[in-house]
Amino acid sequence: MGAPLALAPVAGATEGSLYPVGVAALVNHRAPDDQCNSRQDGAVFGVFCPPAAPSLEGTKWQIDLRAPWMGTAIESISWRAVRYHETPTSIALEVLGDGNPVWGVAERDIPRSPATPKAYLVGLGAQTASLRLRQSETRQQPNRVWSVIEPTINVRDLEAPTIALRGVPADWVTAGQVRVDWSAADNLGSDGIGQQRIFIGSRLKWTGAPGQGAHGVVVGLGDVPDGVHQVRLEADGDGTGPAATQTGVLQIDRAPPAARVDIAPAGPDLVRLTVSVADATSGVRAWTVHAGGPGGPVVASGTTTGLAVEVNLGDYVAPGRSLAFHLSAQDNAGHSTSFVSDLVTRAAPGAPSALPSVRVGSDAELGEPGRIEASGAPLPDFSRVQTRGVVSAHARGGTRAGRRSVPVIVATYARAVGIRGRFLHPNRRGLRGATVYLLDPTGRTQGTTLTDRRGRFRFTARPRRPGVWRVVALGRPLVVTQAYLVVRPLVRIRIGDRSLRPGQTVRVSGVIRPRTQARRKSVQLQWRRGDEWRPLVVTRADRRGRFVLRYRFSSAGGGYSVRLRILVPREKGWRFAPIATRRLRVEIQ
Question: How does strand 44-49 pair with strand 37-41?
Answer without folding.
Answer: antiparallel
